[in-house]
Amino acid sequence: MNSEPVTEKKVENGAGNTPAPDGTEKKSRRRPGRGSGIFYFISEAFKGMRHHSVMTAASVIVLTSCLVLLGAFLMLLRNINVNLEKLGLLNEIAVFTDGSLTPEEVGAVGESIKKLDNVDTVKYVSKDSGLESMKEQYPDYSDLFESIKNNGDNPLSDSFIITYRDNSGVYELESELHKIPGVVKVNNRLDYAVKVGNFKNGMSFVFAWFFVLLFTVSVFIIFNTIRLAVEGRRNEIDIMRYIGATNSFIITPFIIEGSLIGGVSGILAFFADMGLYRLAVSKLSAELDILEYLPFRSFAALLIIGFLAVGILSGVLTSLFSIRKNLKN
Amino acid sequence: MIEFQNVRKEYSDTVALNEISFTIADGEFVFIVGKSGAGKTTVTKVLLLEEKIDSGKILIGGDDISAYPDRLIPYHRRRIGMVFQNFRLFPDKTVYENVAFAMRAVGAASADIKTRVPMLLRMMSVEDRATHYPIELSGGEQQRVALARALANNPDIIVADEPTGNIDPQMSYTIMNLLLRINRLLGKTVIVVTHEKAMVDSFGQRVITIDGGSIVSDTPAAAAGDTTPEGGDGSEQ
N or C: chain A end with fewer CB closer than 10 Å? Predict the structure, then answer.
């Protein structure tokens, strides 16, 4: 007999050299890798999905549903954050100058403001542009504002809109602004800004934990669905082991299957979220036009990349974990 | 040569193999018989390294297979063609694909597969069933496909575990005769595990009887005589 010690190389090159079934002394000319290339594995993966179409469909549905939920949640969170940030743009102080100041003196006030600590930006608003803003804000009285402008008796004064860096130093800043010659009034909305900021942080914290929880549950469901699919093919895996297939040969089609299921689910979830989001925005913007709605394109790249990454990764990892359990010798 | 040297295998509360020793020469045909639970299937499991032995040694060609690391197990299995009671064919592959798959799994070239698979199917008289799925075949045909698959990688040893357990008595003799032909014409070492004592006796081959995990008898093959009973030459009945 040709029962020589087994080595990987020896077996790959043809361990048995006993006569071929037709009685001829035919040496096997095996070349490792031939006949089991990537295209073969991909075709096996597609065959596997077709023959186990029910479990494949179940995996895709579960994975897609989880991804749609995660995506919807992410979009909701981003929209809430944007609206809260808009509300939170209250780190502004309006500084009004004396109406009798010359343009040079107003300019000197602006320079003095810029030199103060905790000042981030300084925006000059002339009394004419202030009047224009009011005209836009109150279109019903546009005639009134127009006549004031034409008569040259604009009651407004030149002002500066300042943003600051640190809430805690705002009262000190306010006091410094009052000391500048030519400044007659300083308005800040610190209390409101702090309240909105706290609410936003609280919301983000709760949503972040909810997101983590939802993601964990999704991964658990996906894992169990794919694990069941792999368990259902245990006999197939056993046969492969008995005929001497290596673990990588057995695992590869399952990994490809997992990644295909994940990829398809990611794409389906992307389009489902796109449709749902556009529908929701069209309904809500008609009734809640006070809110700002981000366009879907601002999520598109994040969603498609995230969905494909999460889908493929969860498909591959769950397939890998499930099948490795069945590969014990 | 296959050598079992004082091989012991215990499961949680059962001694499956109680320090058994025997030798099977190259090209020999051996029946291993025993009642259900006697330990005969454990012999095949430890030979395939599906189970690790607790003590003793199993040598093939003088090489201690029980010391093989896990990574060598698939390569070890490629020199043993396995035939099962329940055939264990891939239900979603055709007859041709089932046999070809065994070759693909070891990285055989496509050209080799195209040449060898039809030849094996012809040898097992199932070439006209090449495009059929296992469910469309009789038990006997499925077992012949399983035999073709077992031979696909030209192994040195064929192990058949209750190969006639799921087929009718007439076909059982045909399968046994096919195994005998494989042994005689191809020089393969053939080990057949079965509990069908009457059929075993009619073949006049070496019989190792196991009971309670121990070998109770080891009867050598009849020196000469007709060893193709009832099934004739092994052709389809």
Answer: C
Please say if the pLDDT value at position A252 is more than 70: yes
Let me know whether A217 and A314 are in one domain.
Answer: yes
Are residues A3 and B157, on separate chains, in Cβ contact within 8 Å?
yes
- Whether B106 sits inside 8 A of A6 (CB atoms) is no
- pLDDT tens for chain B, 237 residues: list them: 999 999 999 998 889 999 999 999 999 999 999 988 888 889 999 999 999 999 999 999 989 998 899 889 999 999 999 998 888 898 888 999 999 989 988 888 889 999 999 999 999 999 999 999 999 999 889 999 999 999 999 999 999 999 988 788 888 888 899 999 999 999 999 999 998 888 888 888 999 999 999 999 998 887 544 455 544 444 433
Q: Distance (Å, rounded) from C-alpha B11 to C-alpha B17?
A: 10
Final residue of a domain: which of A169, A188, A207? A188
Residue A257, domain extent: 34-86+196-325
Contact A77, A207 (CB under 8 A): yes
CATH number of the domain that A175 lies in? 3.30.70.3040
Q: What confidence tens digit (pLDDT) does each residue in A115-140 have?
A: 988 888 899 988 888 888 878 877 77
A37 touches chain B (CB under 8 A): no
Q: Hey, is the C-beta of A46 within 8 angstroms of any chain B C-beta?
A: no
Highest CATH level, class, for B29-38+69-219: alpha beta
Does B70 sit within 8 Å of A34, measured CB to CB? no
Cα separation of B78 and B80, whole Å? 5
Q: A-chain residues within 8 Å CB-CB of B188?
A: 18
Q: What pLDDT score was predicted for residue B115? A: 94
Calculate how close chain B gets to A43, using CA atoms only, in Å: 13
Question: What is the nearest CA distance from B83 to chain A, expressed in angstroms?
Answer: 10
Number of domains in chain A: 2
Q: Are residues A55 and A111 in the same domain?
A: no
Decide if A29 is inside a domain: no
> Any chain A CB within 8 A of the CB of B144?
no
> Nearest CA to B194 among B210, B181, B170, B218?
B210
Instruction: Tell if the CB–CB gap between B156 and A1 is shorter than 8 Å.
Output: yes
DSSP B47-66: HTTSS--SEEEEEETTEEGG
Q: Where are the domains of chain B?
A: 29-38+69-219
Please judge whether B76 and A29 are an interchain contact, meaning their C-beta atoms are less than 8 angstroms apart.
no
The reply to whether A316 and A202 lie within a common domain is yes
A169 & A50 share domain: no
- Verify whether the Cβ–Cβ distance A243 to B157 is below 8 Å: no
Q: Is residue A1 a part of any domain in this protein? A: no
**Separation in Å, CA of B201 to nearest CA in chain A:** 26
Give the global pTM: 0.65
Cα distance between residue B151 and residue B160, in whole Å: 12
